[in-house]
Structure formats: C-alpha cells, structure tokens
Amino acid sequence: MILRNIDASAGGFTLRHAADAIKKSWGLVGVLLALTACTSEPPRYESRELPLPAPTSRTMESGSTTPDSIPIEASFIDDFDRPVATSQLDNGWQLRGAPIGDSPLPPATDGYLIDGHFTYDGKSDVMALRQFRAPVRTIGAEGTFHRRNDASSGTSMAIGMAGDGNVADNVVLLVADRTTWQVKSRLANGRFKTVATGGFAPPLERDRPYRFALSCTGDHVTVAGPGLSVSKPLVVPIPLGTFGFWREYPTRTPAGEVFDFDKVWALEDGQPTLPPMTASPDSGH
After folding, report:
1. What is the pLDDT of residue 20?
2. N or C: which end of the chain has fewer CB within 10 A?
C-alpha cells in the first residue's frame, strides 16, 4: 500500500509538471505570435531603371560658367587698355572688312577701340587681324554681348586662325552668337566644312563676360566656351597658319546687339608663354 501510494503520488506529480510545462509552452507561443503581429512588414520597393542623361558635349549649363572657367595659356595677350582709336588698333593690328571672294580683304568701315573694348557699331563686318611669329595653336577671347540700340538683329562673333592674311587658306574658326555655336574649317582653295555645332541653353546673357578658346593641332580641333568643351578630329589635316583673327558681323544691319572684345590672346607654337591668367576683371560671378 505504501509503495502504491508512493507510485500514485509520483505519477500525479509527473502529470502536474507535464501540464505546467504545456501551459508554459503555449504561453511562449502566444507571446511569439503577439510579437509577430506587432512587427511591421519590410517596406515594399519598386525596381525602376532611371534613364541616364543623353551624351552631350556641354560640361555645364551656359549660364553657370564664368570667364575664370577657361584659363588663359598664351604667348600673346591684348586687353585693349589704351586710348580710344577709330579705324585702327595699332600695336601690329590690321582692321579688315568682310571677305569678298578671293579678293584681298578691304579696309574695315566699322570697328574701333573704346573704354578698353574692341567693338563696332553693327553696321558692317569687321575683323581684327594680325600675323604672329609662329604657327598659332590656340586663339581666345573674352567679352560680352551688349545691346547697342533697339534694333532686333544680333551679332555673331568669330575667332580663328588662318594660313594667309586674306583668311582664305587653311582656316579653322569658331563662330558664336547668344544661342548657337559652330566650328568650321577650310583647306587652301577649298570650301568651309562644319566640324561641330551646338547651342547654348539657356542663351548667353547680355552684359555678362564670357570666354571662348579654339585650339588646333593640325588634325584635331578643341573648342571651349560657356558650358562648352568639345574635341573633334579633322577629316583632312590642316597646316597651322601664322595669322589669327577676331571678327564680328551683324545678322542684319544695323545690329541692335554687338559683341565687345575685352581681351584676346593667342598661343604660338614654340614661343614662351606668359604667366597663366585665370582671374577675370568684372566676372561678377
């Protein structure tokens, strides 16, 4: 009897412990379920392929560039800091008018120096031309588009290098107005061919200084300007010439808007360079 009582008690003890263990297990399961219910799901995400911007030759918006963006590397610089002059620029310059076929360039009927600018009245084509000591590798200019009167027509400015004083042989040039630009080349006795072209977006502002530079190795052309950096091969190599020119002309006469050249420069092949210039007066940016 005693043994059975002990066995029965032991059995009851075991059953009670088993029941308690089951209750605790269900309690833990309840806690886990509650915790799972309170935990938020990971946020869903949508897989999207973002379109990449189309390749472009512009490195920045035209309105965001300053003259300081294009350092001046030159063996010749003229900032036109001298007295007012009409019909001549002195210091080795020639003022010439629009090319007329293969005839020698006529004397300019427009163009002058005033207040440290080389500019014109917008009445006819004018070109500041000079011959350098060695072939020209880079031509540059800094200046502003400026409204001269109420006429709606504008002005195109051009900088370039040539193999002769008539600007007819072995020419490479950059032409720009406030909205477009293009690079052209011309071999001796040939026709002008477009090397590269593009636009300024937004258009260049009036009364804000901009820098432009054109470089040529003979088989490669590089152009830099407001938001612009382009390098292109020439289909047919061009011998480097010793003439450089800076030109402006009206889209219609008279031009209501002109370009004031504040500073011009050139880098001659094999000539010592002047100290680097990066700062620009009146950059305002």
Report:
1. 53
2. N
